[in-house]
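Tutorial, part two.
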Amino acid sequence: MNTDSAIRLTEFQKRWVADTTRFKIGLWNRQSGKSFGSSLEAVLDCLKKKTKWVFLSSGERQSKELCETAQTHSRAAGRGVELLEDDFKEGDIVYKKLEIRYPNGSRIIALPANPFTARGHSANILLDEFAFHRDSRAIWRALFPTITRGFKLRLVSTPQGRKNKFYELWSADNKYAKHKTNIYDAISQGLDLKDEEGNPCTLEDLRLALGDDEAWAQEYECEFLDEASAFLTYDLIAECEDQQLMALPGWAEALVIAAEESYRQYRENKAGIEIAVDPAILSGVSFLGELYLGMDIGRRRDMSVIWLDQKIGNVLHTAAVIELKKAPFQLQKQVLFALLARPEMRRACIDETGLGMQLAEAAVERFGVHRVEAITFSSANKEALADGLKRSFEDKACRIPVAQHIRNSLHSVKRYATATGHFRFDADRTEEIGHADHFWAKALAVQAASSKAAWAVEIEGIGERVSIGGYGEQVRQSAYAGMRNY
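Running the prediction step on this input gives:
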């Protein structure tokens, strides 16, 4: 197979495929063709001789996409291949395995990465987006012995901070063949940049659209960022990710569609009568535990995010992350109220800052203070929320879906010291993640599930904060308005 004529490869992809070194690691920018080039090498190897490759990706979706790319390469080479799909179980978890079988007996097996799946096969190994694998060190310990008897090892990824095995292997003096391609290298070596209509676009177009210097440095310039200023590190976030969870399950998507239709009818109704979402939309949905909800309400350009958790044992498992971008008040209200009306709903915390006040007050009035708490995003309250969220991650008390934009939103918040000795929390605003909207929605959901509220109030003059309030109480700093300390 002539790779130059049959498939248009960039120069850096050609170098990768041609390099037959046993231990090889690739550091490539996002959307540069990592999966295309790395899977092509495996396919060519399978066509050349009888052999076996195992692809390990960060989740089932990524595993399937990588395997489908390999299948495309095989068909382009004119070889008939068989693609098989199977489920296998480890404990209570069911994993999906994809396998490509070649006429000469070669096989490619694609799996979601974890310590269990990593130790199951002696074969050549491709670790796809290894920096994003949860438990990357445990996966590495389980995996490496499987290539002992002469098999090859391939690691490819975009960087994700410095607290993972991929960074350690890339930065170590370990005699690996190392291939690095950032966005500037990629363009100079044949990568075309195009917009959604297929027209050429520039690097500056991309950078301005991203609107995040740190994300640009990491995702496109392949820089391993120092995470000292990040409140939630990528490593901490990855330890709580669960590939079995979906950010937007089918029932949640159906709810949003129903709310959009309800809003359309509301707009057409000249009497201005609200038309509630039909409860039957959620009639077939069952949850495994009590529900807790957090809602960060978008202001101006930001999206609103509803984070719904279900508590199973002592762990909060994400049930849905519903993003409402530039959604009208009535539409947001329909989605929120449909969830609050669920019999499993125990408590919700809603951002009442600015434009959120109207929606939060309506929810409290409809469902009562025992179920809904409206929270002002004061600096003291944001500190309490952020600290509670971090404890939840550190204690492994939450499980979240594997989604890059959610991961970036959670990671985007930074903590800055103030002149009073306390901290403020802030993040850059981007088109992808808004203004850390997922971070604050999740923090509110964690707060809703806590046994009691503990809102901080700064006592002017001494720079100290005290915790006040109990479960269900609507205590705010405004309670001190007009009060004298004597």
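The chain has two domains: 3-219, 234-480. In part three we will examine how such features are distributed along the chain.
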